Every structure is written in C-alpha cells, then in structure tokens.
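Appendix C: a fully annotated inverse folding record. The material below is reproduced so that readers can follow the format used throughout the book. The structure is listed first as tokens, followed by the designed sequence.
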C-alpha cells in the first residue's frame, strides 16, 4: 500500500529515520555520528500530538523498515503484561528479558492512568536505556504533561526530565484530523452508506438486530427450504476464565454495553473477542462521567482493539461519539476514542 505524507509528516519522518540510523548503528550506540557528538546518546524516540495526525501510521512505516529484532505493543497490553510479570520477578529481570528478545520495542498509544503504571514506567525505562534497548513511543500528550494531576506525581516528576534527556521528543501537530477527513471522503463517494451508528432507543436496537441477523448461517430444512439459523450463545475461552456471549452468529457478536464494559474484562479479553468475531454490535453505550470511569477505560481499550484490528463496529449510544465523554473531573484521553469512532462507524 502506498502511503502519502504531508510536508510536516515528511519532515518528521526524516528526523525519525536520522535518529534511528544513529541508534541502530551498533549495540553500543558507537556510530560515527555519536562519537563526534557533544550531546549524550539518546535511547528512544517519542512522537506526540493531537489525535488523528498520523503518528501511528508514520512510526509503523519506519518500524517496518528497520531490520533488527523488534516488537510492537499497545501500551495497555504492555503494562498489563509487566504488572503480571512483576509478581514473580523484579524490574531488572524484566528489562533483561526484553533485551534478550528485542533490540527495539514500540509502545503505541502511551497513556499513564494510575500511580502503579507511572512508577513502573519510571523504573523500567532507565533499565532499558542501560541495556541499550531502543524504545519508540507514540502518544497524545507532551512529556511535561505525563501523569498530570496524578496521585503522588511529585515522585514521578524527576522521570520527566530524565525522559527528555534520553529521548528525542518530536511533536506532530498538523491542523487536520486525517481520520475525519478520510471518513468524509468515503461518505461523499458512497451513494448508499449502511448505517453503523444510532442514538440509543428500542427502535435502534431492532434496526441493529435486523442487520446482525444478516450474518446468520443458512441451513436446509427437511422440506428443502433454506432457513437462517437463529443467534446462539458462544463461550469465549480466555486465559483465566470464560466469557459467555449471549447472541452470536458465525462472524458477528451482539453485546449490550453492560456486558462489554461493566465487567472485569481487560485488553486481552477484547483482543480475543475481536479475533473470534470480526464484526461486533454494541448497544446502549452511556454518557461517560465520574460515575463510570472504569467502564469508560474498558470501552476505550475495546475501541483501540477494534481500530487496530480493522474490525467492523455497529453501535448505539446515548450521545454522538464526540459528546459521549462529559467528565469534568479526571480527564481521560477520550478524544482519541471519539476520533477513532468517527472513522470506523
């Protein structure tokens, strides 16, 4: 697939490639450029900016062309794995395990919600830097705003200055949200667009069920007349438990919001769901505020998985995607979720 970048993206692309050339020169960063540089060698690159500006596309383009051992992680998956691993080993062991496997890691969609993740990042990144692991990151906020307003942030603030010394922090803040522009272009060229979003109501649920039932598998009855099989339950096998989905067809699942996000589901659970069902119907997504922040976080993780996996989403909600988040207290990065919803719905 041919990717066309705008001027700002091209300039940033050149910067990323130049920095990576130095970092990848050898295992000790002793390239000709770094030997004669008066600046300290840097161990990573952080690309940040508003949603929909092409950060992930840009970094993926470079990441795919670098010929070293490497791994891409969504930040939720990365931190969840590390928190589990910390139950049996320490930070230094974790860093060495990463170094033995990969010369480069990419942590996409960086978000720091809680003090446990903030302290983990504060300890892990220096350990990876010491081991010369190249770390790429993408996110929506500038380093100075990492974990802003978080509990015990004063214990985290020294990490920000360390991060800025050891990472090239590059902003991508173009004027256009390319997700919205691409969606508008698709809508303008499509004479008949199948609806993917409804304002929540009983009529909306019926309309969604009608589309959902089009995924039913046909079978031949005894009289020879083809009939469509009714929806059936499906048990999704997860790592440590099962998740019973009440209504599924072969390639589609129909789920109400409470079953999707007002549960103990996590990032890996949503990944398993999308791998099993490439089309998902979600009804009755609520307005998000201080009363349902945990459900909001799960919904954001679910949308990240849907978007990353190219899955198809049909959804009803009590507000348009851009108006769903109305929490004036703790700020979650819902703008990214709204932008992605605007593209995939």
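Designed amino acids, in order:
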């Amino acid at each position: 697939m041919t990717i066309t970048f705008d001027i700002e993206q091209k300039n940033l692309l050149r910067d990323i490639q130049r920095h990576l050339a130095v970092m990848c020169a050898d295992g000790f960063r002793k390239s000709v450029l770094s030997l004669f540089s008066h600046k300290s060698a840097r161990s990573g690159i952080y690309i940040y900016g508003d949603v929909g500006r092409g950060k992930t596309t840009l970094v993926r383009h470079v990441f795919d062309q670098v010929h070293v051992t490497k791994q891409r992680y969504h930040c939720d998956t990365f931190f969840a794995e590390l928190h589990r691993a910390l139950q049996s080993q320490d930070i230094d062991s974790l860093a060495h395990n990463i170094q033995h496997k990969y010369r480069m890691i990419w942590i996409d969609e960086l978000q720091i919600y809680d003090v446990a993740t903030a302290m983990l990042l504060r300890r892990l990144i220096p350990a990876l830097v010491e081991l010369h692991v190249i770390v790429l990151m993408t996110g929506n906020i500038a380093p100075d705003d990492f974990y802003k307003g978080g509990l015990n942030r004063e214990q985290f603030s020294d990490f920000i200055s360390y991060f800025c010394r050891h990472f090239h922090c590059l902003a991508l803040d173009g004027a256009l949200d390319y997700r919205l522009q691409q969606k508008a272009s698709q809508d303008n060229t499509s004479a008949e667009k199948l609806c993917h979003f409804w304002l929540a109501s009983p009529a909306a649920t019926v309309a969604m069920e009608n589309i959902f039932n089009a995924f039913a598998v046909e079978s031949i009855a005894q009289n020879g007349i083809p009939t469509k099989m009714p929806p059936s339950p499906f048990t999704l096998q997860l790592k440590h438990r099962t998740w019973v989905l009440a209504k599924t067809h072969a390639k589609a699942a129909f789920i109400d919001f409470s079953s999707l996000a007002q549960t103990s589901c996590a990032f890996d659970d949503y990944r398993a769901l999308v791998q099993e069902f490439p089309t998902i119907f979600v009804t009755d997504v609520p307005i998000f505020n201080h009363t349902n922040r945990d459900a909001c976080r799960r919904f954001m993780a679910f949308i990240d998985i849907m978007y990353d996996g190219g899955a198809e989403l049909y959804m009803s909600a009590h507000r348009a995607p851009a108006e769903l988040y109305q929490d004036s207290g703790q700020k979650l990065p819902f703008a990214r979720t709204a932008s992605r919803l605007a593209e995939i719905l």
